[in-house]
Amino acid sequence: xxxxxxxxxxxxxxxxxxxxxxxxxxxxxxxxxxxxxxxxxxxxxxxxxxxxxxxxxxxxxxxxxxxxxxxxxxxxxxxxxxxxxxxxxxxxxxxxxxxxxxxxxxxxxxxx
Length: 112
Prior knowledge:
The chain has 112 residues and is an alpha+beta fold. 46% of the residues lie in helices and 15% in strands.
């Protein structure tokens, strides 16, 4: 029989302690990764739903609306607020510019 373990008790105890330390490190890492995955899943489930329509707001008094976007548009600026479908249609009809990237006027069936 092939036996590659040391023949004396002292070295066997050393190997056992060494492997026990590695198992503890591995178990600790597994627990940390499980906790992180659980936190990420909780964050995904608690994330607010993305609005269907957003309006980008201008600078100045009253922060007038400057551009209408579809909810997930990458070109929308930082100053924005969610709006309903009816308000988005009303803003576009009132002359607020439609985003040229996501084209909310096309999706809302508003023709120029």
